[in-house]
Amino acid sequence: MSQKFQEIIDSERPVLIDFFATWCQPCKVQSSVLNTVKENIGENARIIKVDVDQYPALASQYGVRGVPTLAIFKKGEILWKESGVHDVNTLTQLLKQYT
Is 39 a catalytic residue? Predict the structure, then answer.
């Protein structure tokens, strides 16, 4: 996963990573928000979900201490990272800012 993950975040397009856990209720809320964000931004950015229980080393590498944690990468650089549930407008604006 880490090689594939690196290829994904090295993209010219911004990539929103959703670090989540299947047992996390707020993560389920965030997931439905991200579906709408995807509709809003189309092909201008990617949204990828990473299960912290399946990939604990990846979560640790990026300092994920709580779920959900969202991070935006572009060209391998982390541009923004925050924990908690975020709304559609905030995330859409953030992604548009980095396209």
Answer: no
- The domain ranges of the chain are 3-90
Q: Domain 3-90's class?
A: alpha beta
Say if CB 73 and CB 46 are below 8 A apart: no
Which is the catalytic residue, given 24, 58, 85, 88? Answer: 24
Q: What is the pTM of this model?
A: 0.95
Q: Around 15, how many Cα atoms within 13 Å sit in the side-chain half-sphere?
A: 19
Tens digits of pLDDT across the chain (99 residues): 678 999 999 999 999 999 999 999 999 999 999 999 999 999 999 999 999 999 999 999 999 999 999 999 999 999 999 999 999 999 999 999 999
Q: Does residue 62 carry a catalytic annotation?
A: no
Given 9, 16, 17, 27, the catalytic residue: 27
